Amino acid sequence: MQKPQARYITALPENVVQCRLCPRKCRIPDGGRGVCGVRGNQGGAGIIPYYGAVTAAALDPIEKKPLYHYRPGSSVFSVGFVGCNLRCPFCQNWRISQNTGAPAQYFSPNDIICRAKAAGSAQIAYTYSEPLIHAEFLLDCMALARKSGIANVLVSNGTVADEAAEAILSLTDAANVDLKCHSEETYTQILGGDLSAAIDFIAKAWEMEVPLEVTTLVIPGLNDGDEEIQRCIDVLRSISPRIPWHLSAYHPDYTWTAPPTDPAHLVSIVRKARDVLSYVYSGNIAGEPNDTFCPHCNGLLVQRYGYHIERGGLSFKGNKYYCRYCGKPAPFRYI
Fold it and tell me: Which helix (H) or strand (E) holds 19?
């Protein structure tokens, strides 16, 4: 498969290139790679040697992304890549995100579309590691998916510059974006990221009317303090209190050795957030209800048991969801 020319690259003197894809703006010498490991320089020209390199492909419940308010109960063909532009020491998928040598197969965008159709899926999720650093493949695959009547689902850390963000979000049908914390110091010094870029991406997705949900992994001693949680609540409320927020329990992984999230503490955070935000859900713990109720009549719309759901409170007409009890629009999206 012929690899296309790298986008978001500026040539500099002495065979150096600068990548404009994310806030890092890596200056890459000849023969080198950016921090993400997948964007490089060969002879003073930007290269993307991992175009189409897929490390994982599976048919998942849409709730696993997690997306609770987009096509509930559906399945999504999911593909993952290599590399990441963050260095989260608690990464749950570090074997592919922090390792460009992970086993991979190379697929063209058309191959991905064909595999999604063969799996019986009307949607593709770009997930598992960080898809945005593969912007060229993402844009090509998303554009072809749109032409083929297949929806595009983006699961991302949101750390990308405005130019690429707008192009990718214009082809995105639903997204789940990480808000790792609300500390610029943690983002820059521990994660190697940019808090403002992540918040801007969330705000831009909402502004562009992309069905959007946000996930925060709650990590003891890092982002689970009252002030930190309140700042996250405040920033989501400032964009829209209707953005669903998933608060997931952490377990030790990669190089981070803090103890697992206390389920009782996570539940207390979820309940606090529900006083302000319309839809807040817990993840990776058992026993806490994650049901969705009608904002108009409080009827039970969707009942969840892990990834199994009951949609008895929903009706569907004209590609839109409605409450069976009061007949008003339900807070779910199909297109």
Answer: strand 16-19
Looking at the DSSP assignment, which residues form a beta bridge with residue 280? 245
Which positions ≥6 away from 106 have C-beta within 8 Å? 1, 52, 53, 54
Mean pLDDT of the chain: 97
Residue 8 contacts residue 164 (beta carbons within 8 Å)? yes
Give the model's confidence band at 42: pLDDT under 50 very low, under 70 low, under 90 confident, else very high.
very high
The amino acid present at 251, given as its one-letter code, is H
Of the candidates 177, 172, 174, which has an alpha carbon nearest to the alpha carbon of residue 333? 174
Q: Are 122 and 98 in contact (CB under 8 A)?
A: no
State how far the Cα of 198 lies from the Cα of 204, in Å rounded to an integer.
10
Whether residue 18 contacts residue 28, with contact meaning beta carbons closer than 8 Å, is answered with yes
First to last CA, the chain: 32
> What angle, 0 to 180 degrees and rounded to 10, lies between the N-to-C axes of helices 109-118 and 135-147?
50
Give the bridge partners for 189, in sequence order.
Answer: none
Whether 198 and 187 have beta carbons less than 8 Å apart is answered as yes
pLDDT digits (tens, 9 = 90+) for 177-236: 999 999 999 999 999 999 999 999 999 999 999 999 999 999 999 999 999 999 999 999
Phi, psi at residue 114, to the nearest 5°?
-60, -40
Of the candidates 186, 199, 275, the residue with the CA atom closest to the CA atom of residue 228: 186
Instruction: For residue 209, give both structure tokens.
Output: 């009317």
Q: Which domains does the chain have, with CATH numbers?
A: 9-47 (no CATH), 53-290 (3.20.20.70), 291-335 (no CATH)
pLDDT at 114: 98
> pLDDT tens digit string along 248-299?
999 999 999 999 999 999 999 999 999 999 999 999 998 889 999 999 999 9
